[in-house]
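lol so apparently i was supposed to do this last week
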Amino acid sequence: MIQYQIFPINPNSHLFEVLLSFKSTPGQSYTLSLPAWLPGSYMIRDFAKNITQIHAFDGQEQAIALTKLDKQTWSLQAQDGQVQVRYQVFAFDLSVRTAYLDSQRGFFNGSSTFLQVTELSELSCELIIQPSANTTHNQWRVATGLTRAKETEKFQFGRYIADNYQHLIDCPVAIGDFDCTEFTVEGVVHHLVFTSKHYGDTQRLAADVSKLCQHHINLFGEAPFKEYWFITHLQAQGFGGLEHKNSTILQASRFDLPNPQQIHADMSDNYKTFLSLCSHEYFHAWNVCRIKPKEFVPYNLQKESYTKQLWAFEGITSYYDDFSLYRTGLIDFEAYLAILAKTATRVFRGAGELKQSITASSFDAWTKFYQQGPDAVNNIVSYYAKGALIALWLDLTIRSKSNHQYSLDTLMRELWIHFGRTNTGTTEDDFINIANLLCGEDISTTFKRHLDSNERIDISKELAEYGVELQKKKFKKLNSLETTPATCYHAYLGAHYKAQTLGLVINQVLENSPAANAGLAVNDTLIAIDNIKITESTIQALFDHLSVNTELTCHFFRDDQLLSSTLQVTDSPLAGIAFKVVDNNLTKQWQEIIAAK
Ligand code: ZN
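anyway here it is w/ zinc ion bound
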């Protein structure tokens, strides 16, 4: 058994102190390290950079020398039967990935805070979470998916248990005076924790999220956890989530939660997106936390772990996150098609799909998808968005070829039984082989082309079978992905921007667009067009008054230099996607089949 104790020693300086203790063999060397990345977020983050004041002692409190081997690894030699290592962790990152502490709340991922003892990583771990000494924090409680020791009540500070180091770091911990509600699905208690002030209707949220949980449990056939924690960091703005085996850490705006003043029919887009995020991370409890690419069994958290399969783990999960909202009746079919159209538009509007396959995007996630530069919209394809379209294609194909006997649900259940339950890593061929079996024919060639080629995916044929037409549309406004019918002229710039006190700061430029041809680049501040001062509303009004191909002078700052160029306004390309029901009978059949399975 390895013991960790964590103390919020100085909330105002954002410092946790950790005391690590383990029984040692005198004379033996031990290696201590922190991960360089954490599962679910595929980027090297070098968590050890936040460790300070690290010291080691033996059982007699005598100092033991620590030798630093690299950016995240130390070694020591035990002097007697006990080693203690005391260190501090600077915790001031409000993201879901690391650790945070201030006078309002605390949060930590074990991957940022608990040093692994390499030689003892399979031993069980005991974590003692100590309360803050500050009496104004008397109301603080604990929320975590870690197993509580016998004497520890739910929400209490005290002793928690993990099977081994991997288990310890898969259970992030929130502490604070938080709001919490719970609901039960299939005998599993689910907690909804909000770590900051909010105004939301948590009863409605619990009722809605429980439907999604029931859907996913039904899909896989069982819940592989005894309890589950949705821990949400609420901020002014923010969006994101990170999956764990029996919990998820979410980040959202305070106002994304359902408004208690609104009736059910008025579900805001932000609330839909939040529900979809809950659905996404909960689906991951099976798909990626337990069904994993073989490269992640076991995880090597010391350096990049390359896999071509993120399209399956993020793409299929992204498909089901919105699809389950429709299937559980939280949104109607029209709303579902609108969400699907946005996903398709995100893939279709840029040239990334023509330059990078989805398997290459998965493989290079570490340096490309997770470190997107100004060229991302032109050179990267999202394994989330295109992965979701491939999942849709796969679902429709399996349904059609098996005469509606099977679907992507069946494929996921097979994966769960053969790979998830047994902790066996998947290969890409496992997905293809199961799909072939369910289809009753070999669909490998098309499947592999969708995965490995730099071609646009076309799902219009599959959708047409169900009375849904894929339509190519223009963009309605300059700075939005909202689409409009192709019949009339809609001015197009090919750049997205954010309004600032002075002008518009460009944050995206599509290649070969009017903006690119004028030489505008990301981070330029556009201040005038045709010698008219530009704001978010005036640029739209100006463009709406001009005929196609009008040439205009534009002025912009690049860094602190004022530059000018000529901008030619064009008609919007047909780069937006919409899905329209054109045969109600066919679509109704599809809806009935989806609901039945
Ligand atoms: Zn995900």
